[in-house]
Amino acid sequence: MTSSDExxxxxxxxxxxxxxxxxxxxxxxxxxxxxxxxxxxxxxxGWTVELVARIGWTSRDAWWALTQDPRVWxxxxxxxxxxxxxxxxxxxPSPLPTALxxxxxxxxxxxxxxxxxxxxxxxxxxxxxxxxxxxxPPRLSVEYLEQTRAALAYxxxxxxxxxxxxxxxxxxxxxxVHSGREPAVRALRAWSAETNVPMVDxxxxxxxxxxxxxxxxDGIHWGWDAHVAVAEAMLTVLRPVAAEAxxxxx
Length: 250
Known about the structure:
The protein is of the alpha/beta class.
């Protein structure tokens, strides 16, 4: 068997996430960097990784990826588990409409785009102190997560799905405000209880790092010890899943 055949034969850890999954203490990295938590988890389990993520993604974007990205479709048949490492962005204050932020890149000419972006960067942290509205209300976050879970269950009823509670931050760009986290956690906890989706609390795993000098200076992305802590938390949930997968293998 060739190495490519061996790789294809191994289960894949399919991760739908935001930039927390591929940023380190100095910025974004290629998804195959072995220090990132999805790769730490996969290496421990002997699996491969399919990481589909982008900066600023919410639970709605994860749903769109599931329904529109053929890379995700290709990964589902060989997935050993799916991690919805998404939702932290949902709970951040977004006093200016998310659609406005997303459309800034399309403004022309470039000089006007730079002016608008600079203005947004000035206003966003100031208005964030209001704490409301958030990027995606808890009700909608859960709705998109449930649509994602249900779609996966329709295709592969036995496929384990793991959810996450939002991380924490001390990011000046959001006024160091995260009043939307607790309502999000309550909604996610209720969803987990209704659907039996196991949850990993990212905040518990990364709080010591975020509050230290070892995190990314932006105050929202993690340092390497946080990636290790998240991987350990994920493995607590995924090791039994991996063991059951081996048991089911003919």
